Amino acid sequence: MTGEKLLYIETFGCQMNVSDSEKVAALLKSEGYAPTADSSAADLIIVNTCSVREKAEHKVYSYLGRFRGLKRERRFLLGVGGCVAQQEGERLLKRVPWLDLVFGTHNLHLLPEMVRAAEQGERRAAVDFIDNETRLDLFPRADEAGGATRFVTVMQGCDNFCSYCIVPYVRGREISRRSAEIVEEIRNAVAAGVREVTLLGQNVNSYGLKTPGELTFAGLLREISAIDGLERIRFTTSHPKDISPDLIACFAELPKLCAHIHLPAQAGSDIILERMNRGYSRQEYLAKVAALKAARPGIQITGDIIVGFPGETEDDFLQTLSLMEEVRYTDIFSFAYSPRPETAAAAFAGRVARKETQERLDRVQELQRDMTIERHAGFVGTCQAVLVEGMSKRGDQLYGRTDGNLIVNFAGDPALIGSLVDVRITRGYPNSLLGELTTVQ
Ligand code: SF4
């Protein structure tokens, strides 16, 4: 291929995948690929997959199926990355003959070489786990992306082995990036116009704990908070077991740290939490929530809930509902349990019937919908500082986020994108708020 080449990336799953996709775009820029939002014009389509959700492999195979006919109509390359690629490896190439390359979560660095090979007609899969030193050097950096907000990966992998979760198998063990490098990256990003960073990791709370002499996560937040010109800091995800009193204190101490935390409980029953290998009890979880609310009044708490975990009785499930009511989450991600290959829970007895699981999921979602609507209604009449991120999907309004991570749509000049503005909230919807611009900060 010659001339300008276009790259289309379809990203599924978590923010770690979004961050990996940014890295893919940056890596392939050096190979002459410019990003496009139009898959039908792309010379290279990368599908960045996630294996956390139910039937993930099946969905990826069926998604890839749609490219079979397209490949006959025009010439383009097709690649698959992410967690399903890590899990399936060569099998993907064998089962999908029109696929050109497969790269795992540890092999992003090989991508330029693999794409060059694919351009010459060579199909390759690279899904090896690599050593920690190499991994450290390959941490996604986002220096080249534009905009006022930036994801910054601070650690990767997980040592927790929750019994349902595939992450430790597809992302590997925890490893933390050096704090000096993170701070420098954020300083450079701020100099380039970034005003908000979101620090990413599967379990940011254990940042630095395995590296002698390294800062803790709370220490890292304090260092980042001292960067002039940076206005907001967010982070995700936080394991409730590992959130320390020092980290909770940061919410009281650091005004730049946004008033939002994603703290996944997963279940409200001690029996299920134990079987999930979560490492905390219901009471311990609620004590941490109370400490966070005391440290930062008005903090928005979001979470994850799994229903239908093996052995979950109606009584266990009712405890999940009551936990949700006690916490009063702003919003949650809710999942019906599905066994993932290699995980401990895949072998557990006591499968909950699909119908019952679905019914529990419906009840969880109904309760949360009511709580979210109530929470959003509570903002009507208040004035919120909003960092403007772009044009809304309908294209006729701006959108941005409050300090508590709520999405606000409002009318305004696109020149405000990237600015912090004050917005008076006029209406609450189930997924967002509507407001009126008052002042530009
Ligand atoms: S903490 Fe548990 S759920 Fe989260 S990534 Fe690690 S193993 Fe998975």
Can you give a write-up of this model?
This protein has 441 residues and is an alpha/beta fold. It folds into 3 domains: 5-130, Methylthiotransferase, N-terminal domain (Rossmann fold); 133-377, tm_1862 like domain (pyruvate-formate lyase- activating enzyme), CATH 3.80.30.20; 383-440, Nucleic acid-binding proteins (OB fold (Dihydrolipoamide Acetyltransferase, E2P)), CATH 2.40.50. Helix content is 35%, strand content 22%. It has helices spanning 15-29, 56-65, 67-73, 83-88, 90-95, 111-119, 132-137, 167-171, 179-191, 217-225, 245-253, 270-275, 282-295, 314-327, 354-377; strands spanning 5-11, 33-35, 44-49, 77-82, 101-103, 124-126, 149-153, 155-156, 175-176, 196-200, 232-236, 260-262, 300-307, 331-336, 383-391, 398-402, 407-410, 420-428, 433-440. The strands form 5 sheets. It has a 6-stranded parallel sheet with strand order 2-1-3-4-5-6. Helix 10 runs parallel beside helix 11. It is globular and about 60 Å long. Residues 158, 160-162, 165, 167-168, 202-203, 239 line the site of iron/sulfur cluster (SF4). The site of iron/sulfur cluster (SF4) has 10 residues, from helix 8.
